[in-house]
Amino acid sequence: MIAELGHFALITAFILSLAQGVLPLFGAARGNSATMLIAPAAAISVALAVAFSFGALVWGFITSDFSLALVANHSHSTKPMIYKISGTWGNHEGSLLLWILILAIYGGVMALGGSAMPIALKARILAVQGMVTTGFLAFSLFTSNPFLRLANIPLDGKGLNPILQDPGLAIHPPMLYLGYVGLSMAFAFAVAALITGEVDRLWAKWMRPWIMAAWCALTCGIALGSWWAYYELGWGGWWFWDPVENASLMPWLAATALLHSAIVVEKRGQLKSWTVLLAIMAFSLSLVGTFIVRSGLLTSVHSFASDPARGVFVLAILLFAVGIPLALYAWRGPQLVTAADFTLTSREGGLIANNMLLIVATAIVLLGTFYPLGLEMVTGARITVGPPYFDATFNPVMALLMVFMAIGPVMAWRRGQTARLRPVLICAAAGAGIIALAGSSLAFGFSIGSLAALGLIGWLSAGIGADIWQQLKPNDTASIGARAKRIPNDVIGMWVAHFGVVIFMLGAVGDNLFNSEQVVRAKPGDVIQIADRKVTFTGVKQVEGPNYQALAAQLEYHDEDGRLFALLTPEKRVYNAERQTTTEAAIRPTLRGDDYAVLGDGDNKIGYTLRLYYKPLVSWIWGGAVIMALGGLIAAFGRQRAATKQSSLPQNAASALSTSDGGA
Asked: Would strands 571-575 and 548-558 be described as parallel, antiparallel, or unpaired?
C-alpha cells in the first residue's frame, strides 16, 4: 500500500510540475500576479510529493519488501541497514528518483526564498525549473518506474553490487547530484533572463549563491568518488580518466568558469551574454553525464547497465533542454552584449583568460570522452583514450590556468594596476624558482613536466601568501587586525579555495613523483622491501562478515630500525547473496603518505599475490578538494555580512575596499 501511495505521489508531482512549468509563464507574460503566484505554491507541493514518494521507496528497502521489483533486484535481507538504505539509489530507478527529489527540493527552496526578487523573474525561474522537473518525472514514470510489483514474490532479494556496499558510495551519489542538479538553478536563471532579455547586476547577485552551492557540492562529490575508487577498487590510483569520471569533471570545469563570469556581471555589469551561455552549458554537461551513465553507451564501474531506450529518453531531454535555450540565446544573446570598458590587463581580462582556459579544458575532456564512442559507432573500431592524451593536452592548459590564478586577483578592475601586483609577481616568481630548484636538487631524473609542476606549486602558494600579506600588513592608519576586518569574505574565500588547489597539487605531484610499488608472490614468513619499510607476510586467516566471508592477509610493517609500526589486513571477500568476489584494500593513511596493500589470488603452497604501495602525500588530494569547497562556502555565506560591513565604513574606506574586492 505504501508503494502505491508513493507511485500516486509521483504522478501527482508530475501534474503539479507541469502546471508549475506552464501557467506562471503565461502569468508573467500578461502581468497577472495571481497566476504567477502559482509557481511557488506548485514548487513547494512538488517537493513535498516527491519527498513522500522517495520516502516510500526507502521504506520498501528498509523493510525488505521483495514484492517490489527494484528491492528484489538490488537488496537482500542480510544486508546491513546502511546498505539497505543506500541501495535505494544504488540502481537506475532509485538514483533517478533521488535526482528528481534534489531537483524538487531546489525548486522548493527557491519558492520559499527570493523575497527581494521581482515576482515575474521568480515566476519564470520556477517555471523553467518546473519544466526540467516535468521531463525527469516523465522519464521516471514512463520508462523507469521504481514502484513496479512482482507477480511472483521471491523469498529473498538478489542483493546489491558488492562494490557499492561501502559508506563512501552511500554518500557520493547524493553529494554529486546536489552539484549536478544545483546547476539547474543557474540554467533556470539564464533561460528566464533570455525570455525577458534583461541581465543586470542584481540578477547575477541572486544567481551566484546557487552557482556557489552547486560548485561546492560538485567539488565534494567528485572528491568522494575519487576517494572511494582509491580505497575500494584496489587499483592504487585516485583518478583514471574513466568516462564517467570525466562526465562529472566537465560540468565542474564549466561551473568554475560560470562562477568567475558571474562575478564580473555582479561587480562590473560585463560579460552578460557569456555568463548566460555558460549557465546553459554547465547544466547541459550535467545532463550529458546523466546520458552517459544511463544510455548503455559504455561499461564502467560507475555506470548503470540500462536499456538503451532509456538513454534515448535522456537524449530527448538533453536536446530539449539545450535546443530551446540555444535558440533563445541566438535571438536574445546579441541584446545582452555590452561595450567593453576595460583593457586586457585588467581583472576582467584576467577572468576572461581564466574562462577561456577552463572552456578549452572542458572541450579537451569532452573530445577525449566521446571520440572513442563516436569512432566505434561510425567505423566499429575500438580505441582507448587514456592518461597519455590528457597528460599532453589537459595538463598544460591547467598549468597555464594556475599561472593566471596568482595574477588575476591582484589586477585592478577596468584598467591599470594595483599596488599589490608587482610585489606579488616577484614573490610568486621567487617561489616558483626556489621550489623547482629544491625539487631538482632532491632527486635527479625529474622530467621537465615534474619540475614545471613543482614550480607552479611554488608560484601559486607564494603568490597567495604575498597577496595576503600585502592586504594585511600594518600601515600608519590601521593594524593587521583592523585591515583583516575590512577584507570581504569572498576575497577570503578566494584565498582559501586557491590554497586548496595548492594542497591538491602537492598531493597529486607527491604521489606521482615519489610513490613506490611492489607486486610479489609471497608465502607466509616472506619479507618484502618497499620504500623505507620492510613488510613481513605472516599468513592469512578466515574472517566472517555480516553478509560475506573473507580471507585476510596479515602484513606487519617495520621501519628501518626494525620497529613494528603498523599491521595491515587486506581482504578478499565473497558475498553470500551475490556470490561475487571483491578485494578490500588495507590502508594506513597519514599526512606523510599512505601504506596501501591488496591481497590477490593464491594459497599457502604457491603463495599469494600481494600488491603493496607507498603513496606519499596522497591524502592531500582530498584534503585540497575539501579546502576548495570550504573556500566556496566562505565566499557564499559571507557575502551579505561583507556587504553590510562595507556599507558601514566611511566613504573613502569603502571605495578602497571595492578596488580589492573580487573573490575570483
From this structure: antiparallel
